[in-house]
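User: I'll paste a sequence; please echo it back and then give the predicted structure.

Assistant: Echoing your sequence first, then the prediction.
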Amino acid sequence: MSQAPEPRKTLDPDQVAFWLARHPDFFIGREGLLQQLKVPHPNIDGAVSLLERLVIDLRERAETAEGRLEQLLDAARHNEAQYRRLRETLLALVEAEDRDALAQALATQMSERFDTPAMALWCPEALSDAEPTLPQPPRYVLNQHAGARLAALLDGRTSRCAKLGVSDWKCLLPHVTPPKKAGSCAVTRLSAGEPLGYLLLASPDPEQYRASMDTLFTEYLGDIVARLLIRLSPHD
């Protein structure tokens, strides 16, 4: 009785790939084999030579790398523009001669350079008791009601982006015509060793200051304003 033929052995694809990776010189002297190999085309039915497929893969990688490079360049250009706008803003703020001028300069700079439609600077009465006149908009003396609304917007944080309802807009930005619907705002607590009030940036656009946005810029701006408020104090 004849014996049954042994099952045909096939090479495991992973083993083949592992072996070729460890023997990159295998095709040296076997270039004809490279030309005979056929692989699936990535976009259409049919097969192409291995060399053609490599060219396609390299072209796709080059296009991907070019796209990533363009994204990096766009980010760099954006950051440079932000730096220049911030620099001009800070230069305008440090030239303010008093706190009303500081608030006015900040409102102008934020509107012209950062497309911020409205802002308010709320400071406690202790910062205003030595001034001969009441603060001028967009600077206000912080009262209990406004303080409660600003604290509610912050919700226990140092700074935050949030929705700004029409009633809060009327309360916190009384010098600006309120929108018909809720807008958005970025609010930060002013402090430099002591509570100095709040800085509020606002827009009728509910998407301009989304809750998911980073508030690093607002905090940095608030730190500068807080120190300038102290420097411009009438007690100095």
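The radius of gyration is 32 Å. Residues 41 and 52 are 9 Å apart (CA to CA).
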